[in-house]
Amino acid sequence: VEIARDTAEKFNLIYGETFKLPEPLIDDSVATIPGIDGRKMSKSYNNTIPLFASDEEIKKAVMSIVTDSKEVDEPKETKNDTLFSYHLLFSKQQLPELEKRYHNGGIGYKESKEILIENMKSFIAPLREKKELLKQDTQKVLAVLNNGGEKARECAKNNMSKVRKIIGLI
Question: Distance between CA atoms of 170 and 156, rounded to whole angstroms?
Fold first, then answer.
């Protein structure tokens, strides 16, 4: 996407506004998700939580998220907290209450992790169901891909005609 954006931007500078530049749709609060050890998430660091892992694997990964040793009643910081960064993604309904309990004390990391596990399971369950349905209906998947390919080819054909006209090849 970045290469396409750079190419479109360069073309627009030379030939005028031709292409709409793609804009990212990334929520800044969750733009970078830390790995379960607090470092950058990476499969090579082995610090990821795979979306389609089993419930037991998710539980094991979440329970291994690195936390400090603060007691339940001690206030905790939400900013730069690896565990809380996952709550920003998966616990949106409970965020105000979790934030309050973090800042005022009254929540331990074990309870916080258990809440996160349940929220992740709830988030992932419909994705798993959809994945299973798609695995069972490969013809539908292929039809959607072919349809998308046709639309993309038509769009590309129109864009290339416009480009050829603008640069004087037609």
Answer: 16
CA 70, chain centre distance (Å): 29
Tokens (6 digits) for 51: 């979306």
Q: How far apart are CA 128 and CA 58, in angstroms?
A: 13
pLDDT digits (tens, 9 = 90+) for 116-161: 999 999 999 999 999 999 999 999 999 999 999 999 999 999 999 9
Q: Is the pTM of this model over 0.90?
A: no
Which residues lie closer than 8 Å to 170 by C-beta, 6 or more apart? 161, 164
C-alpha distances (whole Å) from 116 to each of 5, 8, 60, 87, 96 are 36, 41, 12, 6, 14
Which residues make beta-bridge pairs with 34? 40
Q: Which residues contact 41 (CB under 8 A, 6 or more apart)?
A: 33, 34, 35, 47, 48
Architecture of domain 32-124: Orthogonal Bundle (1.10)
